[in-house]
Amino acid sequence: MEKIRLEGVLPRVFAGDTPRPSEVWRGDVTFRRGETVLVEAASGAGKSSMCAYIFGSRTDYEGRILFNGTDVSTLRPAEWQQVRRLNLAYLPQELSLFPELTAWENLQLKNGLTDAVTARRAEEWLTRLGIIDRRDYPAGKMSIGQQQRLAIVRALCMPFDFIILDEPVSHLDEANNRIAAEIIADEARRQGAGIISTSVGNHLLLDYQRILSL
Question: Which terminal residue of the chain has fewer beta carbons within 10 Å of its beta carbon, N or C?
Answer without folding.
Answer: N
